[in-house]
Amino acid sequence: MEKILDIIDILSYEKGIPSQMTLEIVKNLIIKTAKQEIGEDIDYSVEEDEKERTLKLIHNLTICEDSSPALESNPHNTIAISKAKEMDPSLNIGDMIKSELSLENMSRSALNRIFQDLEFHLQRTMEDLLFKSFKERLGKIVNGVVLEIDKNENTYVEIDDIRAILPLKNRIKGESFQVGDTMIAILKHVRMDRNGIHIELSRTTPRLLEELLALEVPEIKDGEVRIYKTARIPGDRSKVAVYTQNPKIDPIGSTVGVKGVRINAVGKQLNNENIDCIEYSEVPEIFITRALAPASIISVQIKTIEDKAMQEQENNQEMPKRHSNKLAIIKLMSDQKSKAIGKNGVNIRLASMLTEHEIEIEEIKREDNEETSSAPKEQKLGVDALQSLFKN
User: Fold this and answer.
1) Do 101 and 34 touch, CB atoms closer than 8 A?
2) Peptide bond into 89 cis (omega under 30)
3) Which of 117, 274, 329, 366 falls between 20 and 30 A from 232, CA-CA?
4) Residue 236 CB neighbour total at 10 angstroms
5) Residue 144 clears pLDDT 60, i.e. is over it
6) Closest by alpha carbon to 49, among 113, 6, 104?
7) Which residues are registered as beta bridge partners of 144?
8) Which residues contact 370 (CB under 8 A, 6 or more apart)?
9) pLDDT tens digits along 84-103
């Protein structure tokens, strides 16, 4: 066991494990083996000898009164005060005598068992540390290198020497990877079983958009501009609502960047996803109007869906499921309807997800609005009209 402390330091460095943690593993293994080889009932401890750079196996004996029942109930780990005084007159009841046991008396098989168990425990400790590290990074961006793409188009990525999986369902539609490519994704899920650590990645979660914006936009990273909520149809289009408490900062301009350089850089990392940036408002009518841009809105009416209606909807399998009990009825001109809905309904779906309101559109035909349009004063439309309603 000579220079074992040096060996422990080397092992700790190679495995990336704190030296003190490796030392505790070795001490516990020595005690475990001593109980098997020498005696199960003996009170052992292992102490470090920094000068000799080794470890010593100690048998601990507690000093008791000559008539103490412990001398009979625990004879291996106690000693009478009279006998202890013969060894050292300065000893008192309650003191402990530490007697060193030679590790050389252990069999060769016992020593081999210590090293075998040490390798196993070090491996488990490494996995535990990695697992803890990955748990702390849940919801954060991770980088890795593509190792393999299987026949089901699941992508396997190496992250910190651990093999992670990006399932096809979590991959942006239309994107593809090659072995050797560098990938960024969100660490979505991590678990550990007897086969090791299992990591699932995602590139479709709105969290990826938020994390990329934080990397690209210093004002978001510093907390000057905050993201209220994001909504994504991965690979197609997304909307992000931002706001700030600092009147000197333009949250939209900061996020988009000069000539859109910041927002476009993020979009490129998401397979050229189009990103709309919207300023959040605490007034639902204004927020919904902004979310439906580029359509011009005449009015927004907020209603609460009755619990009974919600229950009927849940019982009727043919009805589309609502994800909110808040309904926004939007009035707009008929020529604005297609803008509000967007291609394949993308714009209205994202606006609904972003504002957490179900959205229904009531269109006003041009002939129905002739009287209003011929009025002396031009009618305000969209955000300007709504903002004027909520001014103090």
Assistant:
1) yes
2) no
3) 329
4) 19
5) yes
6) 6
7) 183
8) none
9) 888 889 999 999 999 888 76
366 close to 335: Cβ distance less than 8 angstroms = yes
Rounded to an integer, what distance in angstroms lies between the CA atom of residue 294 and that of residue 344?
15
Angle at CA of residue 133, ends 131 and 139, nearest 5° = 100
Please state, in angstroms and as integers, the Cα–Cα distance from residue 339 to each residue in 294, 332, 348, 361, 383, following that order. Answer: 6, 10, 9, 12, 15
> Distance between CA 300 and CA 284 in Å, rounded?
9
Question: What single-letter DSSP state applies at residue 225?
Answer: E
Hey, what amino acid is at 269? Answer: Q
C-alpha Rg value of the chain to the nearest Å: 35
- pLDDT tens for each residue of 324-334: 578 999 999 98
Share of the chain above pLDDT 70, in %: 86
What per-residue confidence (pLDDT) applies to 391?
52
Query: Do residues 238 and 260 touch, judged by C-beta distance below 8 A?
Result: no
Q: How far apart are CA 364 and CA 297, in angstroms?
A: 11
Task: Please spell the DSSP secondary structure of 1-27, one letter per residue.
Answer: -TTHHHHHHHHHHHHT--HHHHHHHHH
* Cα–Cα distance measured from residue 216 to residue 37, given in angstroms and rounded to the nearest whole number: 62
The angle subtended at Cα 120 by Cα 116 and Cα 123, nearest 5°, is 140
What is the token pair recorded at 84? 């202890």
Q: What single-letter amino acid sits at 67?
A: S
Q: How crowded is the C-beta side of 42, counted as CA atoms within 13 Å?
A: 20
* Statement: residue 232 has pLDDT above 90: yes
What's the pLDDT band for 366 if we cut at 50, 70, 90?
A: low
For residues 112 and 58, the model is more confident at 58
Strands 196-202 and 162-166: parallel
Distance CA 235, CA 174 (A): 7
